[in-house]
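Tokens for chain A. Residues wanted.
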């Protein structure tokens, strides 16, 4: 005997929420793949300065997002099927998966909030090391200039955010993106520290907004799945 009345409404409401959850998983998976293959981050984070690789903490987070998106799609499908079939077993499994996902999301959110500035800081340190090597007389023996030029061309910036970058303009014509004139290059190009902050902070805000939306949906789904499970149990008694 199927559920009736308000419990039946909850059944279809849970199906709708699960379909939205499945779509959200697909969107997160798509956004994560876009971030993984974004030309700006790819050009910068694939750089290598001598034997030192550019910081890859950002990509670790992206791989986690890809996994989360795939799991969300699977859990969303499980919830939709469990709601339509009115299966207590599937709904219980779905609820357990949601609790685990929610706990992982909270833990990832706390980690991201604590380390939100660390990614940009690591990349800026990598850039500064390359910049110092590019200014050295023996820089032809390393790839410091190539790394700095890649930063400058990718981010349309010129020089670090420090006094050295401001008072030594002679390197600009060689390392910075070419404008119509030297004065235009000096005025229109921002320092690279600011551009690096803008690049990663914008992407982290996008991830944060998506995480909040998904967390709200998950809370509603946990409540609805428990109510529906109780309704199915009560209806089977009669």
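Reply:
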């Amino acid at each position: 005997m199927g559920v009736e009345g308000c419990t039946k409404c909850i059944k279809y409401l849970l199906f709708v929420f699960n379909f939205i959850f499945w779509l959200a998983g697909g969107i997160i998976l798509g956004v994560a793949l876009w971030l993984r293959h974004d030309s700006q981050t790819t050009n910068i984070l694939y750089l290598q300065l001598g034997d030192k690789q550019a910081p890859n903490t950002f990509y670790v987070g992206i791989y986690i997002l890809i996994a989360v998106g795939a799991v969300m799609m699977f859990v969303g499908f499980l919830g939709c099927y469990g709601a339509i079939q009115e299966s207590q077993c599937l709904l219980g499994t779905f609820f357990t998966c949601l609790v685990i996902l929610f706990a992982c999301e909270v833990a990832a959110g706390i980690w991201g909030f604590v380390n939100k500035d660390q990614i940009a800081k690591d990349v800026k340190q990598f850039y500064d090391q390359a910049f110092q090597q590019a200014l050295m007389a023996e820089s032809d023996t390393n790839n410091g200039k190539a790394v700095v030029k890649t930063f400058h061309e990718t981010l349309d910036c010129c020089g670090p955010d420090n006094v050295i970058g401001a008072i030594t303009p002679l390197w600009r014509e060689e390392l910075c993106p070419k404008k119509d004139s030297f004065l235009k290059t000096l005025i229109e190009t921002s320092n690279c520290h600011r551009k690096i902050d803008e690049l990663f902070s914008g992407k982290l805000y996008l991830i944060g907004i998506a995480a909040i939306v998904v967390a709200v949906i998950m809370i509603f789904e946990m409540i609805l799945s428990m109510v529906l499970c109780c309704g199915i149990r009560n209806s089977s008694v009669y």
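The longest helix spans residues 192-237. The mean pLDDT is 78.
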